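Bumping my old thread because nobody answered last time. Still need a sequence for this structure:
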């Protein structure tokens, strides 16, 4: 029963450990791929940028050379059409005061007026200024004296722009699809698990049903038999069949959509405590505190009994048969209900807190690790409530907290704390 037995059950464990290790592995690989692909395209972008800058520089130099040397048209034709054919980088040639003189690779409607065109080009020059330093063209006379300046403004080609954003778009699209696939996968797994739960529960209830009704009939028969003189045997038999009926009822409830009925939770908990007290060690004292003897909530009695039983049995196990279980029941101002179940056991180690609700997690020799899974399912899926470990440590024990909704209202953990500490109990 002790925690030391955890080492004896590596099989159940490994399943979960491996799964989470795999998750981290996949995440790490995805990160590496992302970083590598961004780094790689960045390199390409950088190279392309350098090339484009060189091309524009050459374009500027060819103009400068053509004007300074003299046979302008020939040189321009040679450089711009044969040596450096630029048909992708948008460039604007301006005079010394940024007035556009010529342009290339810029989409301008030929039908607009020259004035409008000039305006557009000027706006573009402003835009280009932000991207790159312009390239200066210096005009000199035969003696080397400078008599004028021109500037070549340019911006990234469409290709370069696309390449800059491409990896981001690509990776986002891939990430989106991976997320979608993962979501669909885990959803279909949950659906499958649900089917197993429900199918198994229904089948169990069904199979127990037949011998049970026959047992009940036999008991009735023995009661009428005057030769059968063992009333105490009959009493025990009746108790056991009643217990079997309870179990069958639980399985059949969890295997269908259970009906919820308004019940007084205080009474429900009290009768569970009465039942359990007789069956556990006398060294365990169970007490109930409440802010009202009448706390009505819609529950499924058969399933809710199971919840209380599971939590109390776990508490008894954690205390190794000696200690106190304190149940605190509080009704919120708008009907939400808080139930705290506190034990004085050995607590749950912090790193195990996330695991206790996973099916198959148990530290007990004879545990199936299903008690809390079932409890969570009953509270959250069937009652729309919440269950969590409120606190746990080796010296003070553990507090499990259940929140049940009132009329369209579910307390949150913080409200529940205030309520339990009595600060808003009168509100
Ligand atoms: N009150 C508690 N104090 C300390 N540890 C607890 C407490 N409740 C649960 N645990 C831990 O959580 C584990 C899982 O509990 P759960 O009820 O799901 O399974 P189990 O009790 O081991 O087996 P069973 O299926 O028979 O209930 C326990 O084995 C125990 O280690
Ligand atoms: Mg248990």
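Sorry it took so long. Here it is:
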């Amino acid at each position: 029963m002790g925690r030391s037995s955890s080492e004896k059950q590596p099989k159940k464990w490994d399943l979960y450990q491996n799964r989470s290790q795999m998750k981290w592995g996949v995440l790490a690989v995805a990160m590496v791929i992302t970083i590598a692909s961004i780094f790689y395209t960045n390199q390409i972008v950088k190279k392309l940028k350098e090339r484009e800058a060189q091309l524009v520089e050459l374009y500027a130099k060819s103009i400068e050379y053509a004007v300074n040397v003299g046979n302008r048209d020939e040189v321009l034709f040679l450089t711009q059409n044969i040596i450096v054919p630029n048909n992708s980088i948008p460039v604007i040639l301006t005079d010394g005061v940024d007035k556009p003189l010529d342009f290339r690779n810029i989409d301008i409607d030929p039908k607009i007026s020259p004035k409008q065109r000039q305006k557009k080009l000027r706006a573009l020059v402003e835009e280009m200024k932000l991207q790159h330093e312009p390239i200066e063209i210096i005009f000199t006379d035969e003696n080397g004296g400078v008599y004028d300046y021109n500037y070549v403004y340019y911006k990234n080609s469409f290709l370069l722009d696309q390449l800059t954003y491409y990896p981001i778009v690509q990776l986002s699209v891939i990430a989106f699809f991976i997320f979608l696939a993962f979501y669909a996968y885990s959803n279909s797994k949950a659906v499958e698990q649900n089917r197993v739960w429900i199918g198994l529960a229904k089948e169990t209830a069904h199979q127990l049903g037949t011998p049970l009704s026959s047992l009940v009939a036999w008991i009735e028969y023995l009661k009428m038999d005057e030769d059968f003189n063992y009333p105490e045997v009959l009493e025990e038999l009746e108790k056991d069949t009643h217990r079997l009926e309870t179990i069958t009822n639980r399985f059949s409830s969890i295997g269908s959509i259970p009906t919820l009925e308004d019940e007084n939770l205080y009474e429900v908990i009290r009768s569970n405590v009465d039942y359990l007290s007789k069956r556990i060690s006398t060294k365990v004292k169970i007490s109930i505190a409440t802010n009202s003897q009448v706390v009505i909530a819609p529950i499924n009695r058969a399933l809710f009994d199971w919840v209380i039983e599971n939590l109390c049995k776990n508490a008894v196990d954690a205390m190794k048969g000696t200690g106190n279980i304190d149940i605190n029941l509080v009704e919120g101002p708008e009907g939400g209900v808080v139930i705290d179940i506190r034990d004085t056991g050995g607590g749950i180690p912090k790193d195990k807190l996330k695991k206790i609700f996973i099916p198959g997690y148990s530290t007990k020799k004879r545990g199936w690790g299903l008690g809390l899974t079932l409890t969570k399912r009953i509270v959250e899926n069937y009652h729309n409530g919440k269950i969590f470990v409120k606190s746990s440590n080796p010296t003070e024990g553990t507090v499990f907290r259940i929140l049940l909704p009132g009329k369209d209202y579910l307390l949150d953990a913080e409200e529940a704390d205030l309520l339990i500490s009595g600060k808003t109990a009168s509100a």
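The first strand starts at residue 91 and ends at 95. Let me know if any region looks off to you.
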